[in-house]
Amino acid sequence: MRVEMLTSPGRDGRPNEDFAGAVPGAAVLLDGAGIPGTEAVCRHGVAWYTHRLGGALLGRLLRDGGRDLATILAEGIDEVTDAHRDTCHPADPAGPQATVAMIRVDGGRLDYLLLADAYLLLDRAGASPRVVTDVREVTARRACAAPLDGVPAGTPEYDRVYARCVEALRARRNQPGGYWLAKDDPHAAAEAVTGDLPVRGVPDVALLSNGAARLVDPYGLLDWAGVRDVLRSEGPAGVVRRVRRAEESGAGAAPDDATVVRCTDLAG
Predict the structure, then answer these.
(1) Which pLDDT score, from 0 to 100, does residue 38 have?
(2) Residue 193 neighbours by CB distance under 10 Å
(3) Which pLDDT score, from 0 to 100, does residue 28 have?
(4) Which of 60, 97, 227, 264 could make a disulfide contact with 183, Cβ separation 3.0–4.6 Å?
(5) Is residue 265 over pLDDT 90?
């Protein structure tokens, strides 16, 4: 398996809270969630969390012994939580957290795991690409933000409603009926979207953070077939370059960390 990757910080002067890495036959992407108040409950920060968890996952993938990806993720979350349990408050709602995407190629099959809004783009021979993601966080975010509709931005009423929306979203995190991500509770790994398929007929796969997937949603500049074509011709750099151009042109969203991992020659 050959791997190309690129990760780009959203803003100068701030740490990149994404993580990407690979070992023979496997790759990992994490998208750290920067939440107001994290610094007050964790002295390490979100970038530390994603890098520490990413390293723990890669180490386990290197010596996994055939264990399923959810078990590997659960052990990684537990390890990182223990690493700062005595100095920080990892269980606090504002504690560091991350979305996770993992793939592993073994025995002619591709295993995958997605937790929260990372994306897996499967390039299929002779067919449209297939996209796998975990929609629960986006669904919960939209539902919790509904009370803001029609409330004028910049007003005291908007600030009050927004604060209630944030609390409502936090209450759904890592809860049945809500959404799940990597934080302090290893049981979240059991809620991940997982699957497997034969490597035969899959020329390559790509993992994208939601900052890179903006080209499709919300910007609408490309569909997933277009993203696949850019990856084929320009690699991960081509995708990230287009994201930055859209942000510079005033596409509407603040710049975000953007990360793409492309894996080819899966059967090689």
Answers:
(1) 84
(2) 18
(3) 98
(4) 97
(5) yes
pTM above 0.90, yes or no: yes
The secondary structure of the chain, three-state, reads CEEEEEEECCCCCCCCCEEEEEECCEEEEEEEECCCCHHHHCCCCHHHHHHHHHHHHHHHHHCCCCCCHHHHHHHHHHHHHHHHCCCCCCCCCCCCEEEEEEEEEECCEEEEEEECCCEEEEECCCCCCEEEECCHHHHHHHHHHHHHCCCCCCCHHHHHHHHHHHHHHHHHECCCCCECCECCCHHHHHHCEEEEEECCCCCEEEEECCCCHHHCCCCCCCCHHHHHHHHHHHCHHHHHHHHHHHHHCCCCCCCCCEEEEEEECCCC
